[in-house]
């Protein structure tokens, strides 16, 4: 396994690139037809393992998402066996809520299940975190209890959020978390706050931030998307990417390494008939 740049989260070494799972599980943020295409592409664990293997061989040995998502556990083991290295699992579980708050008996069961699946980091999903954000008191209600329960099960606690204020409130209140998930991309896709404001919040965060949706679910081409994100986050922060094929994984890895090392990218450009005029004659 070669050395992709790394950072530390709660004492755990992580690659600065993280494998996202929306493009494995059928969440395209586009159309039902695109969702169906994704599910068909990953209808078996081998197809998923083929993509994971590319990342793992490049030192990108962390995957984030629903820990028991379709085919993920089998594909993870397959890729690990092929490469002989661990793929670190970052779980983002949903937790049951009522109008009174969290149902802690069920929370305990779900956290037990994620620990059993091998999650090293556990970050309650945005569907949980953001419901519990209290702007009046500037706290995230009941999350201190959840973080303690995560620690008790040997996992590192973090927060998955789509609300930038979650990061601020967690920092202000001293919540026991080691990392945050935040949406961050050049076009502001799915971001509730302007890009420059979000960038400042990420830069001021007390813990490393895992940025997600850098390519805006395919609406920004990788060249523009990754140049923006890698050049506007801190050395301790991370970028989560989604791919559908091993070739796409290779492209994102090579492009990211070139950006991070400030080297000429040497991209293979797409050829069309209309581009012929732009070629230099020998």
Structural description of this entry:
The chain is of the alpha/beta class. The chain has a single domain, classed as TIM Barrel (Alpha-Beta Barrel), CATH 3.20.20. The chain is built from eleven helices and 15 strands. The strands form five sheets. Strands 3-15-14-13-12 form a five-stranded parallel beta sheet, covered by helices on one side. A four-stranded parallel beta sheet has the order 4-5-8-11, covered by helices on one side. Helix 9 links the parallel strand 13 and strand 14. The longest helix is centred in the last third of the chain and has 16 residues. It is globular, with a radius of gyration of 19 Å. The protein starts with 5 loop residues before the first strand and ends in a 21-residue tail after the last helix.
In short:
The chain is an alpha/beta fold and 282 residues long.
Keywords:
alpha/beta, TIM Barrel, five-stranded parallel sheet, 11 helices
- Classified in CATH, the superfamily is NADP-dependent oxidoreductase domain
**C-alpha-based Rg, rounded:** 19 Å
- Structural class by secondary-structure content: alpha/beta
Order of helices and strands: EEEHHHEHEEEHEHEEHEEHEHEHEH
Mean pLDDT value: 92
Q: How many distinct domains?
A: 1
The name of the CATH topology is TIM Barrel
Helix content: 40-55%
Largest sheet: 5 strands, parallel
Q: Shape from CA axes? A: globular
CATH architecture annotation: Alpha-Beta Barrel
β-strand number? 15
Unreliable residue runs? none
Sheet-strand content, in percent, reads: 15-25%
Q: Number of helical runs? A: 11
């Amino acid at each position: 396994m070669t050395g992709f740049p790394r950072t530390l989260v709660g004492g755990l070494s992580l690659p600065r690139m993280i494998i996202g799972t929306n493009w494995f599980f059928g969440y395209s943020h586009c159309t039902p037809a695109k969702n169906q295409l994704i599910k068909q592409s990953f209808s078996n664990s081998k197809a998923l393992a083929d993509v994971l293997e590319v990342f793992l061989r490049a030192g990108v040995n962390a995957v984030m998402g629903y820990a028991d998502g379709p085919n993920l556990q089998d594909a993870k083991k397959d890729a690990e066996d092929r490469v002989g290295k661990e793929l670190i699992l970052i779980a983002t579980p949903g937790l049951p809520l009522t109008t009174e708050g969290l149902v802690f008996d069920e929370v305990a069961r779900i956290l037990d299940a994620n620990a059993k699946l091998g999650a090293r980091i556990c970050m309650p999903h945005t569907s949980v975190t953001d419901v519990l954000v209290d702007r009046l008191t500037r706290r995230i209600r009941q999350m201190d209890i959840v973080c303690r329960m995560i620690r008790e099960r040997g996992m590192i606690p973090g927060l998955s959020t789509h609300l930038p204020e979650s990061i601020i409130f967690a920092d202000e209140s001293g919540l026991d978390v080691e990392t945050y998930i935040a949406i961050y991309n050049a076009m502001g896709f799915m971001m509730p706050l302007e890009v420059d404001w979000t960038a400042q919040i990420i830069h001021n965060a007390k813990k490393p931030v895992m940025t997600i949706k850098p390519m805006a679910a395919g609406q920004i081409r990788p060249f523009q998307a990754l140049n923006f994100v890698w050049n506007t986050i801190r050395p301790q922060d991370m970028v989560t990417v989604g791919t559908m094929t091993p070739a796409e994984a290779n492209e994102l890895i090579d492009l990211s390494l070139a950006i991070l090392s400030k080297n000429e990218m040497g991209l293979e450009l797409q050829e069309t008939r209309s581009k012929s005029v732009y070629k230099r004659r020998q």
